[in-house]
Amino acid sequence: MILLNSFNATIEDLKKQIKNKIDHPYLKQFIHSPSISDDKLFFLHTIASLSGKPEKKMNQYILATMLIQIALDTHETVPNKTSSEDDYDLQKNQQLTVLAGDLYSGLYYDHLARVHDVGMIIHLAGAIKEINENKMILYHEDIYSIDHLLDVIKNIESLLLQKFASFLGITQLNHILTDWLLLNRLCHELTLLKSEHRNLLFHLLTKHGQTKQSKHHIIRLVDNMISRTILRLEQDIKDLPQGIRHIQKKLFNRLHQSFNNHEMILEEG
Amino acid sequence: MKMSAAYPFLKEDLNLIEKKLYETVQANHPVLREASTHLLKAGGKRIRPVFVLLSSKFGNNDHEHVNDVAVSLELIHMATLVHDDVIDDAEVRRGKETVKSKWDNRTAMYTGDYIFARALETLSGLTHPKIHQILSNIIVEVCLGEIEQIKDKFNLGQNFRTYLRRIRRKTALLIAVSCQLGAIAGGASEKIEKALYRYGYYVGMSYQIIDDILDFTSTEKELGKPAGSDLMQGNITLPVLYALKDEAFKKRLEKCLIHEQIIDMEQMKEIIHDIKHSEGIAYSYHISDRYLQKALKELEQLPDNQAKKTLKEIGKSIGKRKF
């Protein structure tokens, strides 16, 4: 319990540091505060702890990685259609959203440059490059199968963390975090689907289904994907290598929280 | 004289840089590849690579790394432009459709982020921490400058200092850093590096002031946009600031900008005409020239060589440029 509390305190402290870093009084007036993914922080911290490297250094890496994630997420919210000139506040919001994302990207680079970590800078830049390649595949619908679609989503969601892990030489959790973040995304998409949003995933699944499928079928399909992913995750956590088996409980606890959430989504549906 | 006529001896290096720029943004995804090379194909002065190359000539010139710095700086500049076109909802840049116009905002956002990542990856061979500290700091400063610019739009209460701080971040710092990084990558002494930084800074200030003048004095054909566009977008530049010292003019402008984006276009045309023929233009040229003289003075500390001569010519051509 003490360990868990200390873990949560570290996560909260990291969140606070990230918020301080991206704090900008003028931006705050016009754009929403970016959300900080608890699950991504959880994995980054877990991987960093497993590396056995100094905590201060690891926290710097986590902060930089999360800054990139926030930058990319911020740019994802730039509307595709430019707001009408008449709606000045909306236009300003849009302009500042672009700049905020650029600023957060700059801050990641600045943060690592200050601690002279050129290796990590380049490593994470590689992740940004690949993530945008994958985003273009998804956005321009260059998807040839449902499996391909899932792989692309996995890459978008987890490449940054995978690169972080590979830089530290802790890759044993990669398949778990990849599935975990896919699970998050699928749950999010399912919620959107149920609230009548016709999202890209719905469109692509319909496109790549064997027959023309109704919304109900697509919901079932996504739901099955979620269930299969959870089962796979449970098995993978059970099969963790000996050296890192001590984090099994922590992973199971967190997974069951997600699983419960999913159950809730199903019931609501 | 065209600025590029001042440095024929850089042609080979610039060709190499151009080739590397193309190679660096060859993405796997066809649309990403096309969008990333789109702006490159539109050309441009490549002024940052030129400053990097010239500044590197004051050291022992580690050729490979110098070119990497030049490529990286140009890519960072390009990534910014691709995103700026989303911010400004711009249809045309350098006479070509913008990425956001040819595709859409989303593609432009992904393309800018991709180019930025490639710019950093290009620097993988440079382990000198100072280079990364300088460059990363400037990226943050440029972003903050752009945010300031949006904040200051339509603000008639701003002063000269606000304006100078804005153009410092908008233009001067990146040129200053191009010179500084060129010097570091080329292995120049710290004294030379600092002099080149200051030269680039002053040249950049002078360059931007001229840009702001030309926005009023050039034709639509030369500018590729209507004269006075900056003011119509709410950007208060030096010629306007000077004119604002006249209370009657200030009242007219206030009346014209009824409410931020709602502009009385008829009155605005008159205002632009008045600024074009006001003393504010001569005053702005005077300020630009003062920066230019400071830039040229910095060059006096440098050893005589062809690069120094060229930097001097570039400085002078900036003062004379018409568009």
TrEMBL record, chain A:
InterPro entries: HEPPP_synth_su1
Pfam families: HEPPP_synt_1
GO terms for biological process, alphabetical: menaquinone biosynthetic process
The organism's place on the tree of life at top rank: Bacteria
Protein name: Heptaprenyl diphosphate synthase
Organism expressing this protein natively: Melghiribacillus thermohalophilus
From TrEMBL, chain B:
E.C. no: 2.5.1.30
Matches recorded under Gene3D superfamilies: Farnesyl Diphosphate Synthase
UniProt catalytic activity: 4 isopentenyl diphosphate + (2E,6E)-farnesyl diphosphate = all-trans-heptaprenyl diphosphate + 4 diphosphate
Protein name (record): Heptaprenyl diphosphate synthase component 2
Alphabetized Pfam families for the sequence: polyprenyl_synt
Transferase as UniProt keyword: yes
Protein function: Supplies heptaprenyl diphosphate, the precursor for the side chain of the isoprenoid quinone menaquinone-7 (MQ-7).
Named cofactor requirement(s): Mg(2+)
Annotated source species: Melghiribacillus thermohalophilus
Record text on subunit structure and interactions: Heterodimer of component I and II.
Keywords (A to Z) from UniProt: Magnesium, Metal-binding, Transferase
Enzyme superclass (EC): transferase
GO biological process, alphabetically ordered: isoprenoid biosynthetic process
PANTHER family given in the database record: ALL TRANS-POLYPRENYL-DIPHOSPHATE SYNTHASE PDSS1, GERANYLGERANYL PYROPHOSPHATE SYNTHASE
UniProt entry tagged with the keyword Transport: no
Gene Ontology terms for molecular function: heptaprenyl diphosphate synthase activity; metal ion binding
Family label: Belongs to the FPP/GGPP synthase family.
